[in-house]
Protein: SDR family oxidoreductase
Amino acid sequence: MPFKNKVIWITGASSGIGKGLVLALSKLDCQIIISSRKETDLNKIKQLCPKPENIATLPFDLANYDNMKPIVNKAISLFGSIDLLINNGGISQRSLILDTDIAVDKKLMEVDYLGTVALSKALLPHFTKNQSGHYVVVTSLMGKFSSPYRSGYCGAKHALHGFFDAMRMEHQKDNVKVTIICPGFVNTNIAKNALIGDGSLQNSQDIATKNGLSITTFCNRMIKAIQKEKFEAYIGKKEIIGVYLKRFFPKLLHRLVMKSQVR
Structure:
């Protein structure tokens, strides 16, 4: 039982994949800190867990990346330590480059990249002191290859791969592990909450997202990848073939994406 007696911290825990992870992991013998901006939703999820006393809520906004040290100190104080940080919080995008305000690109980098990096860096001294720790970073298949309407999102997710690959190398000596999870299409509200060109929400579901993996199936596969301490895991349906096409047949991938009409 790799999670037995461990303290797990999950960001983006109020909905979608994050909520699914909380509900799945709460059935195991561990303690969980759940974070997002939405304190009311976090408290509701806590009450859905079989042992609410093993769940602590810690609301904060990833966009406030200059304020992560006190957030980390508070998290450590809740159960005395942190063993595993699941960086799941983030936002998506659905707009053409030509129609997208630079403020939207900035917001995507602040939340998806800088917020995650700042939180992880603030926790790093705790991991190195303990000579133990595990970062799990939920990026996307869009962190491995790109698609139209997601330029800023792809840029932020690609950046996470660059940073956390370096983190894994620099701190192998401290027994700090890094697992990068790359979801394909998962049936969540990520498309509905995606930013469009002017920074407002799309407020509609993508067909591909609706037809994606169920949250339960995805979370079960993700938990197995964490248990195996994989460097990277690609979790989805046929769309994961894009990772390999990008590596070996990039022009073929380009043609297939252009024909797919994925929005």
In short: The mean pLDDT is 96. The longest helix spans residues 102-130. The longest strand covers residues 176-183. The two ends are 40 Å apart (CA to CA).
